[in-house]
Amino acid sequence: MNKKQALVLFAHGARDPRWATPFERIVERSRQMQPDIEVALAFLELMPPSLPERVAELVQSGITQISVVPVFLGQGGHVRRDLPPLMDELRNTYPELDIHLSGAVGEDESVQESIARYCLGQLARP
Predict the structure, then answer these.
(1) Which of 21, 49, 102, 123 is most solvent-facing, going by the fewest CB within 10 Å?
(2) 12 noted as active-site residue
(3) How many angstroms separate the Cα of 91 from the Cα of each of 65, 84, 87, 96, 123?
(4) Residue tagged active-site, from 6, 8, 12, 63
(5) 29-71 residue pLDDT tens
């Protein structure tokens, strides 16, 4: 199957490689749920690949449409200040690419509900 659409999970990055494990699991679950979509991970800093590196790889492999989802809890400085120039750069570099930016994952009501359920589930039971 020749995949033309990709989902890029965009995360902050960290010095400790173990930090990426939950994000890698989300990538794998996403691939299992939607096998006809290329799912990949990219980082803002401290870990490879960067968003421009990941997008270059995807475009080279024939991807024509990319959805970037910031896997951040909120629309903080990185999402509001650092990500828009990266997206502009990508749009200028690849004018033929259909690239879409979502809001931060933590801003979604269903994600907030899932986190709240998890937190409540951690209450010590008498």
Answers:
(1) 123
(2) yes
(3) 12, 10, 6, 8, 46
(4) 12
(5) 999 999 999 999 999 989 999 999 999 999 999 999 999 999 9
